[in-house]
Design brief:
It is built from 27 helices and 20 strands. By secondary structure, it is an alpha+beta fold.
Length: 847
């Protein structure tokens, strides 16, 4: 009679999993800690994302301040003005432009964004001011609102005055916040609001000045905004006008911050992957220690599947506990993210607890911890009762199990799927997975190579302690691969941040040479050109360049207009090429930052022929326009036929005037134009003195102090750096936790070796030295490998993403190397002190 198939007793499996865990709960807690910080990072980001989405939905109206906003770079006239007059029940308009302002109280000057406002805008939200009434009262008198940054910088207060162009305004109050304004935009271009009726008197509406024309509309009755905008869109588009509604602002803002939160999610995911690598390694050693127990259970009739389920239950329990701890830690961390990002977000963010985020974090933690633990767990199926006899001779090798490829496939599928939901691109998610995989493989390969090389180079002539320390890197139960992967990835991540920030700052840093321009004057009218140059020389400053600027548009490419190009399916010319307003110049020579790479430069226009122009290489590639193509430009209403004579390579990183399109001499001299002047100021004091002189004599001329721009950019990069460093900290902390967990696990493996050495007469000092050498080598090599990966990654980013010269500062990398190596050493020694402080007999009894 055939034996009946025994059913699996689920309650008994749970009871066995609980009993088996009693002796190992301290180590199981280490497994839990490895995934806690990754889950905490993801839950914090998920909570932040959900709160951000809710706040965007509830505050979208205050971001735009009206039901409909129409904007343009030129004034409305003719039929489009009639259309604008027909919109809305309530209307407001605004002119905004960049200009210098002067504070008579402290004789200070600053480049600002001037807003001339008419009407009751904003209709939703308010201009937040101190005092509160100033936000509305300033419009009825010759008063201004001044950004709080400017008020602090120039020690101004309500009741003082500020000069905008030719008009001096009384400061009615401090502007704390305007609709859609962020802390970063306030730092880069602080705002000054003035009443619309005084705009003409300022004298700042000169030819060539870049002015934004904004129109705001509010409806006091229900309107189908989608239908309305669909009707007016063709007419606005034809007039080169754009528009925005509450719904479109909601979508655009949500999309912008969705990209940010998805990026941060990937950063948190990397921390979680690091933790899971730690879990996989620790479970691998844990299962190896359990081989004898599992073999005994098999002798007592326990099936291999039941043994597998007993330890799977333990791992699921670990995943649930670790994920819960991480999830609730993440709910506290989410309170920090709004503080870090307040300068980038134009509204208040709530920090409500998101149970959806907690649920996602717990589910993700359990799935990923089980997935990575499956690699060592499936080896349980290969443990037979005979292992009770052959435990010392037969090694259970996971690499011999074909099911490992299924687990590898599941892990890769999970990483690709998760990253797809963050990037919304299968191609991007595949490249992200490949990038992570390559980094893991490089570190694992280098660790493997290290073990092979060390094994080959060890010589008998070396001292005993040196031989033992090096041998620990490749002997059984070594932690070389896991430590190098976890520590190396964390080191690489933070090191790339330092390298890229340094390279970006280097691109805008000022040269110490006297011939390097560090101040730009623009909006100089033709009648002011000589007077501004004379004023510059009076201040004992050099006039490095005075360049004429003409505003043009492109009407035709090879005889085709924008409309004809749009209808041609074969055309590769961007529509933006026709709508863009180009700033061009003319000259007969090239500057040191320009180099002809195709065609021939012609500096003087030949009579009776198409005018030969030179175009910049990126403009050429982007619009598929090359040498020999015919272009017709609209120069202030006059059509001008040209032919592309050459393509130039331009160094945009050099501080000087560079142009996409360059005309020869003899063509544009009589066209309406303004000038840009470049000079060099030797000190902050000289800069302030010169700016004051320019603003007093030429109020329409704006001045950009490059030194101040560098400081602003440095501040911006620092703020972005804080966010990335904060998220990187999760990877670093996870790496440290994995390091501690791995070292703690290896401690149990090293006990018998240390006991043997103690029994053979080795002193505590000698064992201490062997251990110190092992962990110092591990930490140093892991950090060095991570830094080398960071160098490679930074080079790729510099060359292909940012397109800047690769030049890194290795001082932060050296500091990071020392910190990581020392941290590994200290943790290794702390974990080994228990073995060193006890006699061999006591340790043998406990093991």
């Amino acid at each position: 009679m055939a034996m009946e198939k025994r059913k699996i007793n689920i309650p008994w499996l749970f009871e066995m999993a609980w009993r088996d865990s009693r002796r190992n709960r301290s180590r199981l807690m280490l497994f839990i800690s490895a995934i806690v910080f990754g889950i905490a990072a993801l839950v914090a980001i998920y909570s932040f994302r959900y709160n951000l989405e809710n706040d965007i939905n509830s505050q979208a109206a205050t971001l735009i301040g009206a039901d409909l906003a129409v904007y343009s770079g030129k004034p409305a006239d003719g039929g489009i003005k009639t259309l604008l007059d027909s919109l809305g029940d309530e209307k407001s308009q605004e002119r905004s432009f960049v200009s210098m302002v002067y504070f008579p109280k402290g004789s200070g000057t600053r480049l600002v964004q001037v807003h001339a406002l008419q009407g009751e805008f904003p209709y939703y939200g308010s201009l937040e001011t101190t005092p509160v009434a100033a936000g509305k009262d300033f419009k009825s008198s010759k008063s201004a609102l001044v950004d709080k940054l400017l008020m602090l910088q120039f020690n101004a207060k309500a009741g003082d005055s500020v000069k905008v162009g030719n008009v001096t305004f009384l400061i009615a109050g401090t502007l704390n916040k305007a609709p859609g304004q962020t802390g970063i935009s306030s730092n880069i271009a602080p705002s000054v609001y003035i009443p619309f009726q005084y705009l003409q008197q300022t004298g700042l509406l000169k030819k060539g000045s870049r002015i934004n024309y904004n129109y705001y509309f509010k409806y006091n009755h229900p309107v189908d905004m989608q239908k309305l905008t669909k009707n007016i869109d063709p007419r606005l588009d034809k007039a080169d006008m754009g528009y925005e509604t509450i719904e479109s602002r909601k979508e655009n803002t949500g999309r912008s911050f969705s990209d940010l939160t998805h990026f941060l999610s990937l950063v948190g995911f990397i921390a979680l992957l690091l933790g899971c690598v730690g879990v996989a390694s620790a479970i691998h050693i844990y299962i190896r220690e359990k081989i004898a127990s599992i073999a005994i259970m098999r002798c007592l009739g326990v099936k291999s599947s039941e043994a597998f389920l007993i330890y799977l239950i333990q791992i699921v329990g670990i995943g649930i506990i670790g994920s819960l701890i991480g999830a609730f830690a993440g709910t506290f961390v989410q309170h920090i993210l709004p503080l870090l990002m307040k300068d980038f977000i134009p509204f208040e963010i709530t920090t409500a607890t998101s149970w959806m985020a907690i649920g996602q974090g717990v589910l993700l933690g359990v799935i990923i911890s089980v997935l990575f633990a499956l690699l060592p767990l499936i080896s349980i199926r290969n443990i037979s009762p005979l292992n009770t006899l052959r435990i010392n001779y037969e090694e259970i090798n996971l690499l011999r199990d074909p099911l490992r490829w299924l687990v590898y496939g599941l892990i890769i599928l999970f990483v690709v799927t998760f990253s797809y939901f963050q990037l919304d691109s299968w191609l991007g998610s595949i490249f992200f997975t490949i990038g992570i995989g390559i980094a893991f493989l490089i570190l694992a390969f280098i660790a493997w190579l290290l073990m092979k090389v060390v094994k080959l180079i060890i010589k008998n002539s070396w001292s005993y302690l040196l031989r033992q320390g090096f041998a620990n890197l490749y002997r059984p139960n070594n932690q070389t691969i896991i430590l190098m992967v976890s520590i190396g990835l964390a080191t690489a991540f933070i090191c790339i941040l330092f390298f890229m920030q340094g390279m970006l700052m280097k691109q805008v840093s000022l040269s110490a040479g006297k011939n390097q321009a560090n101040m730009i004057l623009f909006d100089i009218q033709s009648s002011q050109q000589k007077a501004v140059a004379d004023l510059t020389r009076e201040q004992k400053l050099p006039v490095l360049q005075q360049v004429p600027i003409i505003t043009i548009r492109m009407d035709q490419v090879n005889g085709k207009t924008e409309a004809q190009t749009a209808k041609d399916p074969k055309s590769k010319i961007s529509r933006h090429a026709f709508s863009y307003e180009y700033r061009v110049t003319y000259r007969d020579t090239l500057t040191p930052s320009e180099k002809i790479i195709e065609g021939q430069w012609i500096g003087t226009a030949p009579a009776g022929k198409d005018i030969p122009v030179s175009i910049e290489e990126n403009f050429s590639k982007r619009n598929h326009i090359g040498v020999g193509d015919h272009l017709v430009f609209n120069v202030q209403g006059l059509p001008m036929s040209t032919v592309v004579g050459s393509v130039r390579q331009v160094n945009w990183n050099k501080i000087q005037t560079n142009f996409q399109i360059l005309f020869p001499k003899g063509v544009l001299e009589d066209a309406p134009q303004f000038y840009v002047e470049l000079t060099h100021v030797p000190s902050v004091k000289a800069s302030a003195k010169f700016q004051q002189a320019v603003v007093r004599k030429f109020p329409n001329v704006s001045v950009i102090d490059i030194g101040q721009v560098v400081n602003l950019l440095d501040d911006l990069l620092d703020k972005i750096g804080y966010i990335i460093k904060f998220m990187s900290a999760f990877s670093i902390i996870t790496g440290v936790v994995v390091l501690i967990a791995s070292v703690r696990i290896s401690k149990y493996q090293r006990v018998q070796e240390s006991v043997l050495l103690r029994t053979l007469g080795a002193s505590r000092k000698q064992i201490f030295s062997i251990t110190a050498l092992e962990y110092l080598l591990l930490g140093g090599l892991s950090a060095l490998t991570g830094i080398l990966i960071a160098v490679t990654g930074s080079w790729l980013l510099a060359k292909y993403s940012f397109e800047i010269p690769f030049a890194v500062n290795f001082l932060p990398a050296v500091a990071l190397f020392v910190i990581v190596a020392m941290l590994t050493l200290v943790i290794g020694l702390i974990n080994s002190r228990g073995v060193l402080s006890k006699p061999p007999l006591e340790i043998l009894r406990t093991t």
